[in-house]
Amino acid sequence: MSGTIILRMKKDEENNASNSAVKEVTGVPVTMMRSAKHNLHSSIFHPLLREWQSMSTTNFTACNLMLPIFVSDIEHTERIESMFGVYRFGVSSLISHLTPLIKKGLKSILLFGVLRHLSKDTIGIHADSKENPVIKAVKILRSHFPDLVIACDVCLCPYTSHGHCGIIGEDGSIDNEASIKRIAEVALAYAEAGAHIVAPSDMMDSRVAAIKQALTLKNLSHKVAILSYSAKFASTLYGPFREASLSAPSTGDRQCYQLPAGSAGLAVRAARRDVEEGADMLMVKPGLPYLDIVKRVKDAHPEYPLFVYQVSGEYAMLQHAANNKAFNLLNAVKETITCMRRAGADCIITYFTPMLLDALNQQAKY
């Protein structure tokens, strides 16, 4: 027997042993896991997802807009002081809030949970409990608005007592392995509740692969898409959001797992990693200060829909400037959205979505 054949047989034995080990740990054959990472069905099971796969212009329609919504565990509407016109909603008030917006063309929303009453702990036990407001909201919204695409932000910070996005180890640093296991459990709970999209924003290493594995084990990987916060920067512009979601860290900051402002190379690497792990869609956050990153990520992965989050600080700055008569708010907002589209964004997550829907409907009349 030749040396080449012997080496090939040895390599096959090693591969078989490795495959068996993976199956033993996950319960899923490795060939299934490999194919799940590149599952196209999770990207096209809904008409809006197919629309996102086909965009290339700088104009925008309702399809290019996603509305972020804060859902609280208490049943009344609360005004967010630092974000004029933005509120925390109780689950029961979502239908009345969304009905007129859907009539105006709203296609998709991104849900964030807020705990005002439920307890917080070190692992975020209520991130996926039956009492979680997001899980309750998804079930109700799916039955009332069958065509509305529902994305759920997946993170632990609103549910943990320490306010960090992962599990804290004994030495005070992030325990990445424990974190992605917990993040996958939360994502799966949202998927089983009926979410079309799970959107991990935690920035833990390998969390997309962990979520993909969890969805595959439950036979959900073909009908739940993963929108990864691929390039999420450690930004001061998240300040109003942390007030809104009651998710500010109690100690330290998030610079050890969110990207430094100048790290263009890390942003590209993070997007590439998420693509390789099976993400269906990518995101850059914040938006306007990082349009160079938007372009770089889109140029590197033109075949993937790219989302941009126009974050709470961007929203607040534009609102405050307009309130002080620095410029016309609608004109400024439309300009920022157009610039994000020009840089490569297929969908913009923005608190200005209701205003823009009104503008689009007014435009359609003429």
Structure description:
This protein is of the alpha/beta class and 366 residues long. It is built from 13 helices and ten strands. It has helices at 3-26, 30-37, 47-52, 94-103, 133-144, 176-193, 207-217, 239-245, 264-277, 291-300, 312-323, 329-343, 353-364, and strands spanning 65-72, 78-79, 87-90, 108-114, 149-154, 197-200, 225-232, 281-285, 306-310, 347-350. An eight-stranded parallel beta barrel has the order 1-4-5-6-7-8-9-10, surrounded by seven helices. Strand 8 (281-285), helix 10 and strand 9 (306-310) form a beta-alpha-beta unit. Helix 2 packs across helix 7 (207-217) and helix 9 crosses helix 10. The longest helix has 24 residues, at 3-26. Residues 3-11 and 14-26 have low confidence and may be disordered.
Layout of strands and helices, then pairs:
Blueprint (H helix, E strand, L loop, with lengths): L2 H24 L3 H8 L9 H6 L12 E8 L5 E2 L7 E4 L3 H10 L4 E7 L18 H12 L4 E6 L21 H18 L3 E4 L6 H11 L7 E8 L6 H7 L18 H14 L3 E5 L5 H10 L5 E5 L1 H12 L5 H15 L3 E4 L2 H12 L2
Parallel strand pairs: 1-3, 1-4, 1-10, 4-5, 5-6, 6-7, 7-8, 8-9, 9-10
Antiparallel strand pairs: 2-3
Helix pairs in contact: 2-7, 6-7, 9-10
